[in-house]
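Take a protein:
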Amino acid sequence: MPAHDPEHASDTPYHKALHRLLSLADFERMRGAAAPTYKYDLERMRELAGRMRLFDGGPPLIHVAGTKGKGSVSAMIASVLRTHGLRTGLYTSPHLHSFRERIRLNGYPLSEDSFAAAVDRIWPVVEDMEGGSIGAPSTFEALTAMALDVFSHEQAEAVVLEVGLGGRLDATNVIASDVAVITSVSLDHTAILGSTVAEIAGEKAGIIKGPQPVVSAPQDPSAMAVIRKRAQLKGAPLTEMGRDVTYAQEEHDLSGQTVLVTTARDRYRIRLPLLGAHQAENAAVAVAALECVQLPLERGTIEAGLGSVRWDGRFQLLATGPYLVVDGAHNPYSMARLHETVRAYLPGARVHLVFGASGDKQIDLLAQEAAAFADEVWTVASRHPRAAHPDMLASHFERFGTSVHNAGSVAEGIERAMEAAGSGDVVLVTGSLFAVAEALQHNLGIEGEYYPEFDPQASALGRV
């Protein structure tokens, strides 16, 4: 993520707390084969949650897994619960600008003081575990425990947890849920989750732990078969999009889209501010999940909550003349959906792609999908340690005959692409949420965080 000057911030209680948290094993920033060498199971998380008494009941909890759309669905559900008047906790990852965004109360990231206090509460347990046989928790495990502890400490009345990776062995999966949601499953993180859609679906379906209601987005037949089998095994009633719930786009423009969702219980007409057919699908999934929660949610509340949702970095329009759009598509499936969205909302526009991706992604397939709609590509590296080198990215696009340039940083890529674009063209920043975060910061003047644990300049650019 982009950094601000460490001299101005590293002495604050919040940054000291963040330094503590990032001193643990952090898979998100490990490159190559380093991450899988760390024992990948729930033993540490169960121990941590048990010591912190995180199993002791709690408010209604919705657990959301999936390859694509799980963050958007989580944000939609949380928005409706807030509209209903509930003090709502939302846990998501990764963040765009600050670690505090990952733990939200009533739509707002934790304050710096609250974040530091949460680290203080968990740290004696972390230190004690470090000296034990199973070792200290990872950064994500500690952060997950912090989130659950914060929601309890702040008396949240409803909680939405987004899975970090997979589902079956994800740190969030030690807590019982009232509703399990599985968004669209496709190939991603294949080194950890499996090489087929069915194998990955098995990991996602691991969040079905009992007879709680389950909602699934439309799936590849092999994935749906796995989800159905798991739900049947656990005695969990399953709601499927297309079979039990239908949805349709009524109209759309760059200000939003109108989505009609029909369930066995009701019919909803939603003016959704998030763009793209995939977000219409996500809205239907969210509606179905909300109908499963044991709360007296009225149609108007659900429509209003979805109508006020905000989830940055997902086909977000930042400027016009030329258009500047950011989208966090980072796997082949989501890049194909992005292609569809560009053509639906900006038909005929020339596309100048500012493309930065993590080195552990399926870059060959990502580039193939992106090359299908890009007229010109500017390859860039975000400041994240896993960022792929722009030259390597460019070599993939060259295979498809795409006009490609190495622009270095995200900011430089945007500036060069905007200079080259005509007034009706679109400059589209995509490939990873890390590149999107830097684009938002560059365009909106947002200050990103500095993490002293690694050089803020991308290793991809040869400075780590």
